[in-house]
Fold these 2 entries.
Entry 1:
Amino acid sequence: MTNAAVLDTSLDTFPKLLVRNSTKFADRPAYREKEYGIWQSWTWKEARDEVEALALGFLDLGMEPGDHVAIAGRNRPHFYWAMMAAQYVGAVPVPVYQDAVAEEMAYVLDHCNARFAIVEDQEQVDKILEIEDKVPGLKHVIYVDKRGLRKYDHTTLHAYTTVQETGRVKRDEYQPELDRLMNAATTDDTCVMLYTSGTTGRPKGVVMSHYNMLMTAKNSCEFDNLNETDSVLAYLPMAWIGDFIFSMAQANWAGFCVACPESAETMQADLREIGPTYFFAPPRFFEGLLTDVMIRMEDAGKFKRKLFHKYMDLAKKVGPDLLDGKPVSAADKMQYQIGKILIYGPLLNTLGLSRVRVGYTAGEAIGPEIFEFYRSLGINLKQLYGQTEACVYITQQPDGEVHADTVGVPSPGVEVRIADNGEVFYRSPGTFQEYYNNPESTADTKDPEGWVATGDAGFFEPSSGHLRIIDRAKDVGKMADGGMFAPKFVENKLKFYPDILEAVVFGNGRDKCTAFINIDLSAVGNWAERNNIAYASYQELAGHPKVMESIQSHVEEVNKSVAEDEMLSGCQIHRFLILHKELDADDGELTRTRKVRRKVIEEKFKVLIDGLYDGSKEVFVETEVTYEDGRKGSISATLELRDAAVVPVKVKKDAAA
């Protein structure tokens, strides 16, 4: 450990923080949840009572220090309390993606040898029962929502509220033991195990200590002045490191309120009602919001469209400078204020972002145009760079030093170095302990001095000292002429367009780049309806000639933009196709965090890639798909492959150097 900082022993575990918060912030809101259309609220004092009652009930069920406790469900206070209650007794919470199919869930529960599972409802219980023979160590399943479960065998099934009631009834019996376990816990004990997304193989269990999480929370809260008056909307998967650091670690450290939406479908409406001051979202979320804005503007009247574009052009010109405190003329300031009244304010309110004081995006690179759009509205949106193994934070952008093409400076307490091959390495207080039961992968990722290989390629900008990430190191390659190949750079430019949902670019070792495109069904469907174009499916719409023409125009615009980058100008797209299906995590093409699994796609759609490179005009393809209920099926299509215009560039003689 390179950072000698230590935590106050009264604040060095999550349960100790909860005890502090229950007195220091006793009557302040700690958790909110919308259920049946009504917001319910719990203070920090009430949250402690909920957690301790559950922890006492866990002791009655026989939970012991070191037990692994699987958590599966949507974001709800009950699950955050469950994680804290497990930590009270020295057990280790293991959040699982709620939309994981049975096989994926079986792997995680078996790999960590989970003895307890805390799930949301009948759907998750059924999933557990389906895989129980593959998880022999599982002893008890606790569910939150009782609907549909009355007639189930309750030998090992328990209602969440019943476990809490038992804990309250037996408080005198178990309280001394609970206090002993809580006080015996140390900062080096494991506080959570989170599984990687499995982009390149089976997910790995990342073991985190209380020190890792709380030291990172302390440093990041101080960096952005987060405190008990802030609030956050907890809508990201609980199995993802981002939700744990924001909704558990930072929330408990700073004492701010965590609000949980009623469902994924109501998230946007709930976001507007809560109006968080602190907000995180992956690039895909911001891309989706921008798509919705553009769709609504296309449906608006001519005057409104003209007004919108006039003031958005002004916002792009002066908005970021105003946000960063840079000089702006009095005339532009006045016009911006008018735009705020007419356009920016109402738009921010509609998006639910009007109260955001600090906003972050990470997970993947965000398109510069998308990033600048939100900053131009006055949202203090910044980028951070991180990964699960770092408790998220590796670099952050300080206020006033925000650039669209970089990810900031090393976060407090973090050291970053660039290897000779361009790979980014870091070490920090947040560096994970190990990969569970996987010493080989641990040794491959973290060296004896604590340096962790990120797998990303990047460099520090000489002028600003900020880190710029090019792509995944394994994805960065060379074109046949020696020029650099960085697919993400091009894919992010493509995804700026509202009608492009996903893009996958190929070209490593080849003489030209090609691409698969997924259209955004909501955006393109809206366009089709406005133009009286009938369609019966995604596949039919994706193959429409006018859609092809529109996507081709986007590809060619991106080529012009890529040509301007001296280092990556060879990554222009020469040929492309629109896929006949959306890339899907259930089909193995994306991870649960929506990252592209390139190897899977290359193998699964090899016939299409071959067609893009052999000059074929059409290719027939048949693909296996997984339906929502788990059934398998197949879809087939004959896809059109198109050429795209590229901008001629001169290859430097030293390109291959």
Entry 2:
Amino acid sequence: MTENSAVLDTMPKLLARNVSKFGDSPAFREKDLGIWQTWTWKESSEEIHKLSKGLIKLGVQEGDHVAVIGRNRPSLYWSLLACQHIGAIPVPLYQDAVAEEMEYILSHCGASFAIVGDQEQVDKILEISDRLKGFKDIVFVDPKGLRKYDKKNLHSISDILEIGSGDSAELDKELKRRVEKVIGDTTCVLLYTSGTTGKSKGVVQTHRAIIGASGGANQHDSWTHHDYLLSYLPMAWVGDFMISVAQGMGAGACINCPEGPETMQVDLREIGPSIFFGPPPLWERLKTSVFIRIEDAAFFKKVAFKYFMAHAEKVGRDILEKRKVGLLDRLKYSLGNFLIYAPLKNMLGFSNVRIAYTAGDLISAELFDFYRSLGINLKQLYGQTEASVFLTMQGNDEVFSDTVGKPIEGVELKIAPSGEILYKSVGSFKEYYKNPKATGETKDKDGWVATGDAGYIDEDTGQLRIIDRAKDVGKLKNGALFAPKYVENKLKFFPNILEAVLFGDKKEFCVAFLNIDMTAVGNWAEKNNISYSSYQELASNSEVANILKEHVEDVNMALAKDSMMSGCQIRKFLVLHKELDPDDGEITRTRKVKRAFINEKYDDLVSALYSDNGSVDTKTEVTYEDGRKGYLEATLSIVDATIYQLQEAAE
């Protein structure tokens, strides 16, 4: 039993512990106008308590749902904690969600209040406020642009803090009463799922579940109050809540908030975090940025990069994992570290990282090995919102690209006869909010939770291996395995491919949609004097199609060497005329493909890929940044790719 789970079973207790043990240590940092501002645990606690009393005065009741919307910043993290102190339930929402998405969640949970970052979020809530029953007030952080707004139900967070800082014995007494009522089984947060299979579900998590799961994860990787994190992922995502709030609070670590998405990379280098968390799309994007810079580098640098990266691929992981490597190879790797690996890690901001995590989706073995070969201790973990994230984690001496680790303390796993992964966990959710049917379908009377993922325990390593979402795994007409995510990740390893969607279940062969990466392909087009005016025009370029065909055939050749996956080779593909977009409902806010939705929306394109046609005309509804709807018309070319025979690839 860890300290967290044994005694510190609520977030208010964790905060009090941190003030007592680490009071003068940095707790939160925020970059504002180019300058880092720092708050210690003692100072942060004072702000949280002032905000708590101010919210009580505003009228926030115990059990009220309070939406928290905006970019990562201390004041919004304090808002989450203030709600937990006064018995209210914070509900983080994605800041880039459109008003209609927000309406569903705010209505579903019956939110009474919202604490938001800026005018943009205020405007979205005001747009739908007349359709929100019981909604009362909005508290905003940044006053810019709000001077002439009707302030009847709008309040500056500075005013709320000022109210809470007043010498009010009544407010102090009420706050003390509420904090004392918060116990381990009190609801800590309401987190909504990404909604890959339909409407998002509200996951009710208690303080005990959140602290139990994060405490086991902290113990697994020895987090301390000396650790630094960069908190840049959406606050509504369970990954950020668990890393930045639960684990950060549990360890007393310092949470660093960048000035904005556009400065994240620069801020990452300045902070030099000891722990870093990123989903696979981020690792793909960083690798793409590296390869773009190398393509633009001088001839000598380009040759040196390719030479030493080939050597890193050969021995880098062995050196990181302290396995036996010959002296000459070690010396060559040391030279490569001086010339290539260390400068590259510094450019990425990973010079001080002792642990880097990836989770949220499957990551390709090639991408995973790329970072570990550089000496970055990237490890996989597995979990879900319903488990407070943490189910399995990899140890420093047992890291494999095709597995996601062993169960952490407080977790049991088993594989159902269907191949679906089931678990019991200290971090298991209480229920789906207002959805007892879905709760019963997911969590049985004995506490076993169905993940919806297919996998098995690897006999050689004893670690869990994920195949795909259980509902996405199927078979081709000839009985061969169809596992789309595995193939899609291999495709996305190429910098030119941003997204891929594979089709083939119950079909004779596999086909795919591809999205180009505008940064990588645009850089190639510029170097080759190819002009274009839009994504659509660049995506339809025949030379681009030929480049992607080479990538697809490289993947097909690799699949042909795998007897289990050889049937998933891609026979035909097309390059979509638009990027898959969460505003169009095609992917989630965490960039997970909504496979069923895409299959239905682009049914004409899928049918064309299984026909003898060489092209297809299409008209697609799109959502512009201002919320307006429009249409894109295009003629898309269908590209044939080479299929390789298993026995030929093995020779």
